[in-house]
Specification:
The complex is a heterodimer of chains A (88) and B (310).
Chain A lengths: L2 H16 L20 H15 L15 H19 L1
Chain B lengths: L11 H4 L5 H8 L6 H60 L3 H20 L3 E6 L10 E5 L6 H4 L8 E5 L7 H9 L3 E2 L5 H13 L3 E4 L17 H9 L3 E7 L1 H4 L10 E7 L13 H28 L1
The chains are: A mainly alpha (88), B alpha/beta (310).
């Protein structure tokens, strides 16, 4: 899976689960201010990403540092690469 | 409304610009040949009527604001003065908890406010029956206007805790009553606190009222629903009671302070029970289904209003 495909899956999952407007899903979009995500949404987001990529983010402190959709993309891609490296 | 001099070279289309559907039908029924001059006179005549209607509408709006705001102010003042003595008397007579008494007073306050609006607002309530309001339950309401909270008084039950953002609690003339009514300021509470509070509410056989959009829609369409209310429903095993409101965005939309006459529709939908949903993301699925049903109903309300206008 390429990075672009992974980003597409992340965005599609969020659009589907949280009924977001796809046009607002830009890397600069702030998760709270622009996408109106609340604390519960972040909990659900962890579950969604776990189901989509198999990565575990539940107790990961780096989740608290993300603020934009681009940050989320970077974090998921990083975790995905780590998981693939561990499997090898 | 544009009114332009009509010449023989101007197309019929340009004459019909900005005229109403009925006016256009009348003009189109005229014979094509030699009709331009007649259409021009007719358009000018209609322009007078349209301009008069606009002036008349503005007078009505002015009358409505001169009627509504002073009366709401007076009623709020009277309500504030008698609320505490009445609260004491009611408590002594009935032994009801303070929050329940405040819910009743707020319900009565809202009903009188609706009476004040009545000369200018046509309110149509559908399926506002107790059978659609099993107790306890979580009422979820779409949100167009500040006045939506007043319309909650049209529910056939009064004993409800409303979940709100922080800003309504800043209104000093209401805040003491909201706190006595134990309304939830969800911006200041953690999820655990909200869950504990909601559990206490449902245990007492009361309702929780939530606006899942979290703010008033500015587009005229229901916005995204946050899933918190549905997560509560699933964890507490209580039904979600969808309440659809349409028309308040005409009455008093966000960003405007003056009210306008409006036709308001309200409808309670059938309860949605949490046992039909399972899995870790059950609440988001429940949220999607309820939102879908509410949007469908609101679109029907919108079409009904459009049909009524034609």
């Amino acid at each position: 899976m390429t990075d672009a495909e992974a980003i597409g899956i992340i965005n599609d999952s969020m659009v589907r689960e949280f009924e977001l407007d796809p046009e607002t899903m830009t890397p600069e979009a702030h998760l709270v201010k622009d996408l109106e995500m609340d604390s519960l949404d972040f909990v659900d987001l962890v579950v969604v990403l776990q189901e989509a990529f198999g990565i575990k983010l539940r107790n990961d402190s780096s989740v608290k540092e993300i603020s934009t959709l681009g940050d989320l993309h970077d974090l998921v891609l990083q975790k995905k690469r780590q998981l693939e490296a561990e499997k090898k | 409304m544009k009114c332009r001099a009509v010449t023989a070279n101007e197309g019929e289309e340009s004459i019909l610009t900005d005229l109403s559907t009925a006016s256009r039908r009348r003009l189109l029924s005229l014979p094509v040949s030699g009709s331009f001059t007649v259409a021009g006179h007719y358009a000018l005549h209609l322009f007078d009527k349209v301009a008069l209607m606009k002036i008349f509408n503005r007078i009505i709006v002015l009358l409505m604001n001169v009627w509504v705001y002073p009366l709401i102010f007076i009623w709020t003042l009277i309500g504030s003065l008698i609320a505490f003595p009445a609260l004491l008397v009611w408590r002594l007579m009935t032994g009801w908890p303070i929050a329940k008494i405040m819910h009743l007073f707020v319900w009565i306050y809202g009903r009188v406010c609706m009476l004040i609006f009545r000369p200018f607002v046509r309110l149509n309530c559908k399926d506002m029956r107790q059978e659609f309001l099993p107790c306890p339950g979580i009422v979820v309401v779409n949100h167009y206007s500040f006045l939506d909270t007043y319309l909650l008084c049209m529910l056939p039950a009064f004993d409800a805790h409303i979940c709100l953002r922080s800003w309504p609690f800043q209104m000093f003339w209401y805040s003491i009553f909201m706190r006595l009514a134990e309304y939830f300021d969800f911006e200041k509470l953690s999820w655990e606190q909200i869950l504990a509070g909601a559990e206490a509410v449902t245990r007492k056989g009361r309702y929780l009222v939530v606006f899942p959009e979290g703010h008033r829609s500015r587009t005229g369409k229901p916005g995204r629903f946050h899933s918190g209310a549905f997560k509560l429903a699933i964890q507490l095993k209580v039904p979600v009671l969808p309440l659809c409101i349409w028309g308040t965005q005409t009455l008093l939309p966000p960003g405007r302070w003056w009210v306008r006459p409006a036709r308001i529709e309200m409808q309670l939908l059938e309860p949605v029970y949490p046992d039909k949903f399972c899995g870790e993301m059950a609440h988001t699925e429940m949220c999607r289904q309820v939102r879908g049903r509410m949007i469908e109903t609101i679109e029907q309300m919108e079409n009904k209003k459009t049909d009524a206008n034609q």
